[in-house]
């Protein structure tokens, strides 16, 4: 027999002078996955190469690259890492983390039904990874057991983030689509649109399958399954498996609600509820329940084989693997294999029964290793303990079977508020054996960092200082007009509360800093027309609006200047680029008609002229004490009566003189 590897032309090929293809791992409807060696970093990687007919589709390839870049930004212990993406000749490929192990589909094919505890353990890891994707704005859109990887070293990861969204631009029919159709949400079936709640629906279908042993909707054709997803509600798992707790019924029905608005908004919301459900189930179950540690059970010898036809229990290192006979034979998709437990007549026992026993023993040993000494015995410290109180974190960790130290550690953290849990030892996201002790690390707030002398720095110098601290620069920088600081230099630096940090000795690590950069003095627009003034100010980033009118030396209708609202400290208002400057418009000079004061007493003339805000000069030899007498008559004035003068102009009056 000729193996696939011996006939695959990709085996032995070198991609981009770096990746040596070693063997084929799997082939799907859209891509083939190979084991390869990264010759540059000397490590094993998995390479997914798109099928040729898809690589020829430019739109598909464009979204393939876009999603690869998005996936590469996802750094989470429950998401398969994407290392690289490239093109070699006509082949588009992704380079991913290589995880030797099995998929959730393999586990379901081998054992059909998982226990409540096993289902919760796996789904907590799946939802933790999916929550990170949803937080980053990424929707998977192809969640199914084939894309959940159970690694030999204990890690549980979601794969195919790099391809899922790109694949949605194409449609397929027949068996190639059957596995995906089984997990498609009603809105994807009817409208072709997806968001985070579509992923939640797929998670709910997977949970149903893990608890029941088959998918809720089956059919011979993809359209039959799609029709059921669009028109029927998913039944509760307990209707097919009476061992399923009501709490898990509620989770599955919530996740698979036909209306997206009735589902959890994203993976984080469902994960939080899953933690609570896990905790309540652990509290409610007595020590003799299926989650309690039990001794390893030995399968009966051949004479007892007829008991296999009953609803028997297979024990795997103390965890119960439930096997329930299906209510009736049903057509299932290619992605679901049903392990028959139908009663067998004694007379039909033979070689095939012996083979079935061997299969069950082997399956029990494999699953026993996975959940006992293998990856299933590991617990991932969840991200949900971060930003929680120590009491809340303790409850979450203890619900997962971990011990929590009474001693609290401390660590600085730029994000988590003071006195809340920032991390743990071992750290959040790491996998630890069941029963391990975890120490909570409480946030002391951001680490204090010395504040640089920002004022007078150039913008680039200030940017470099912020990066070196490190602080977080708020973009864009603020441009502010200043008559005293040259354009391009720093005027001030504001902290998170928009108060100046200039003069502070320290400021929190990674906290926000907003730079205020000088744009120099405001341009001079005095006595310009309003159009000219508006154009000048627009050139430096200011909007304009007409304001009050005042008398001035500028011609009527021209601009006197910018109206500066004076604050309580008596400083003129500052302007920043993008602000609106209110223009003060000139009414022209403020002219007053000079009254006729000839013949008046000097003192009366002075009072009248000063009331009109003229400055009065008196030319007379009479002592000032006599200016109010009949002898102090104004004999002449300059300027003459009737002339128009500006307020504050000088008027001279003449009285009795001896010469």
UniProtKB/TrEMBL annotation:
Location of the Protein kinase domain: 19-281
Keyword entries, A-Z: ATP-binding, Kinase, Membrane, Nucleotide-binding, Serine/threonine-protein kinase, Transferase, Transmembrane, Transmembrane helix
Residues covered by the PASTA domain: 376-444, 588-657
Enzyme class, spelled out: transferase
Superkingdom: Bacteria
InterPro entries in UniProt: Kinase-like_dom_sf, PASTA_dom, Prot_kinase_dom, Ser/Thr_kinase_AS
Any single Pfam family the record assigns to this protein: PASTA
Sample GO molecular function, one term: ATP binding
CDD domains assigned to the protein according to its UniProt record, in alphabetical order: PASTA_pknB (cd06577), STKc_PknB_like (cd14014)
Gene Ontology biological-process annotations: negative regulation of fatty acid biosynthetic process
Transmembrane segments: 351-372
Catalytic activity annotation: L-threonyl-[protein] + ATP = O-phospho-L-threonyl-[protein] + ADP + H(+); L-seryl-[protein] + ATP = O-phospho-L-seryl-[protein] + ADP + H(+)
EC number(s) recorded for this UniProt protein: 2.7.11.1
PANTHER family assigned to the protein according to its UniProt record, in alphabetical order: MITOGEN-ACTIVATED PROTEIN KINASE KINASE KINASE 20-RELATED (PTHR43289), SERINE_THREONINE-PROTEIN KINASE YBDM-RELATED (PTHR43289:SF34)
Protein name (Swiss-Prot/TrEMBL): non-specific serine/threonine protein kinase
Source organism: Rhodoglobus vestalii
